[in-house]
């Protein structure tokens, strides 16, 4: 019963068949009751006719009346019953069965009629209904006798059985129709869900080229749209993973190839000058440092890819954090005579992960130094309002082409690969920075023009709020 299709089928079948059975029973009972009432009314009318004939013919006084006898016999034959006429003294003066003529009637209904309690009594006895009707003299308005008619209900029972049989046939026919309709409707309702299941199975098998196109109920259309968005996201993640693996492979292969070529050259040549040995070994050392930088950045990226639950949030001074970052980077800027200016508008204290925020700020400022002109400048400013703090890093460097600014946060993407190799860039710095800022529920924006410099602006909430809150 956990199957939605079975539940829908069962619900629709019960919702269809139960009202049919209830209404059919109500209608049949009402119909049967109406038949008995109608038969009773007919008999009552005949009892009234006999009473009138008895009064007009003086039958109660001992007068013989063929009309009364004939009418009584006809009614008894038609309704398979019995007619008795009783006088004021409870003596039976007419019995169509000719069994109790002359005897005394001791029926309770007859006695009550004689006393004038009611003018009509109906009593059910087995397969018969007994109707007792008073004979009232219109001139004196006194009860002078009673007509007792008992009639068989067997014919009514036969009619009732026939009606019940037909009702059962109709219910069975309706039940079959309801079963077919419920089956078809449940199948129609579950078919789109079956498509969803099949699509999920295909995704489980690794086929991401799946798209749901369901046009039925609005809820299922929403499921279809959400599924397609999910598949699109999975495809993007899978493509990013494959590209990341390819980039990592390429980035590590390049220095390894270079080192192999250099070492082969050293091994293949004998008697090389010491200066050449030193040059080759220096190149090998540079490639090893490059591989170390790549691996370190990959490890940092792996740490930042973890859930934000791994964030170690502390309330610290952002001013002091920037002071520490700038202190480490000033010697690098001084080597190229780049002016490094720091300006803080107010003391700022915020909830941050000190390590991750240091990585983000260090990468941005270090890039501003690396991709700058000798003798250039880098300006770092810190400001805050009641909700966020803002860090802006401006430089007078080479800038970023406008059409490439949306790609700079991708892993291993480098605007100028040749210059990146010269500066030791791995293409992971800005990806690390963006991830660290997003983990702080912040945002980062870039504005740049080629040969005119670049400006990065980051905005971080002063109070860290987890996703659950």
UniProtKB/TrEMBL annotation:
It holds the Pfam family HAMP. Residues 247-464 form the Histidine kinase domain. The chain crosses the membrane at residues 6-28, 167-188. PROSITE patterns: HAMP, HIS_KIN. PANTHER family: SENSOR HISTIDINE KINASE CPXA. The lineage of its organism: Bacteria, Bacillati, Bacillota, Clostridia, Lachnospirales. Its EC number is 2.7.13.3. It catalyses: ATP + protein L-histidine = ADP + protein N-phospho-L-histidine. Residues 187-239 form the HAMP domain. Keywords: ATP-binding, Cell membrane, Kinase, Membrane, Nucleotide-binding, Phosphoprotein, Transferase, Transmembrane, Transmembrane helix, Two-component regulatory system. InterPro entries: HAMP_dom, HATPase_C_sf, HATPase_dom, His_kinase_dom, HisK_dim/P_dom, HisK_dim/P_sf, HssS/ArlS-like, Sig_transdc_His_kin-like_C. It is a multi-pass membrane protein. One of its GO terms (molecular function) is kinase activity. It is found in: Cell membrane. SUPFAM superfamilies: ATPase domain of HSP90 chaperone/DNA topoisomerase II/histidine kinase, HAMP domain-like, Homodimeric domain of signal transducing histidine kinase. This is histidine kinase.
């Amino acid at each position: 019963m956990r199957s939605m299709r079975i539940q829908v089928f069962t619900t629709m079948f019960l919702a269809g068949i139960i009202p049919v059975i209830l209404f059919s029973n109500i209608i049949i009972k009402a119909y049967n009751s109406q038949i008995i009432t109608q038969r009773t009314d007919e008999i009552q009318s005949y009892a009234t006719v006999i009473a009138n004939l008895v009064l007009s013919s003086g039958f109660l006084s001992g007068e013989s009346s063929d009309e009364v006898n004939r009418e009584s016999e006809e009614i008894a034959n038609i309704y398979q019953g019995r007619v008795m006429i009783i006088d004021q003294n409870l003596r039976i003066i007419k019995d169509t069965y000719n069994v109790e003529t002359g005897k005394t009637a001791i029926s309770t209904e007859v006695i009550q009629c004689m006393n004038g309690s009611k003018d009509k009594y109906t009593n059910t006895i087995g397969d018969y209904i007994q109707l007792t009707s008073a004979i009232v003299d219109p001139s004196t308005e006194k009860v002078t006798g009673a007509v007792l008619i008992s009639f068989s209900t067997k014919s009514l029972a036969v009619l009732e059985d026939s009606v019940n049989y037909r009702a059962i046939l109709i219910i069975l026919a309706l039940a079959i129709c309801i079963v077919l309709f419920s089956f078809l409707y449940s199948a129609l309702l579950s078919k789109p869900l079956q498509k969803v299941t099949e699509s999920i199975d295909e995704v489980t098998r690794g086929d991401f080229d799946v798209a749901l196109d369901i046009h039925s109920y609005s809820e299922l259309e929403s499921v279809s749209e959400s599924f397609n968005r999910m598949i699109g996201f999975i495809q993007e993640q899978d493509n990013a993973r494959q590209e990341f693996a390819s980039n990592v492979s390429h980035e590590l292969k390049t220095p390894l190839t270079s080192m192999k070529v250099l070492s082969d050259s050293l091994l293949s040549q004998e008697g090389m000058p010491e200066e050449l040995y030193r040059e080759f070994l220096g190149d090998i050392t540079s490639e090893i440092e490059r591989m170390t930088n790549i691996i370190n950045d990959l490890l940092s990226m792996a740490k930042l890819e973890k859930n934000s639950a791994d964030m170690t949030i502390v309330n610290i001074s952002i001013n002091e954090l920037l002071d520490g970052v700038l202190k480490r980077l000033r010697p690098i800027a001084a080597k190229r005579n780049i002016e490094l200016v720091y300006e803080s508008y107010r003391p700022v204290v915020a909830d941050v992960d000190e390590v991750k925020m240091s990585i983000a700020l260090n990468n941005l400022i270090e890039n501003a130094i690396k991709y700058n002109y000798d003798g250039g400048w880098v300006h770092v400013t810190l400001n805050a309002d009641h909700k966020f703090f803002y860090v802006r890093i401006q430089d007078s460097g080479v800038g970023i082409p406008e059409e490439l600014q949306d790609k700079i946060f991708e892993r291993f993407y480098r605007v100028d690969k040749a210059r990146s190799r010269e500066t030791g860039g791995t293409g992971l710095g800005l990806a690390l920075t963006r991830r660290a800022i997003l983990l702080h529920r912040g945002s980062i924006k870039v504005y740049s023009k080629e040969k005119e410099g670049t400006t990065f602006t980051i905005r971080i909430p002063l109070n860290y709020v987890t996703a659950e809150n």
